[in-house]
Amino acid sequence: xxxxxxxxxxxxxxxxxxxxxxxxxxxxxxxxxxxxxxxxxxxxxxxxxxxxxxxxxxxxxxxxxxxxxxxxxxxxxxxxxxxxxxxxxxxxxxxxxxxxxxxxxxxxxxxxxxx
Length: 115
What we know:
By secondary structure, this protein is an alpha+beta fold. The chain is about 20% helix and about 25% strand.
């Protein structure tokens, strides 16, 4: 069983992740173009990875501590939302700028909580 995930922008510029329900892989491949047409017909623009590169794997972290160096992470989401930061700014960036280059943008992370 498999699913398709489409990263899209709606007509208002909102970032949307469209996920199909589970199907057999062969069925998903055969219906792929139908899903793309459905999204476009409903005013969603599928996003392609930049420069033809494959999409980065999703980084799973708590949104507070850098998964690379263990320092504090800056959460820029609200500042982006209110226009204080550019829409192209990373949603999260390591506070240890001099030594660590960790940063993730919209669609590249999943916030996890320790249960």
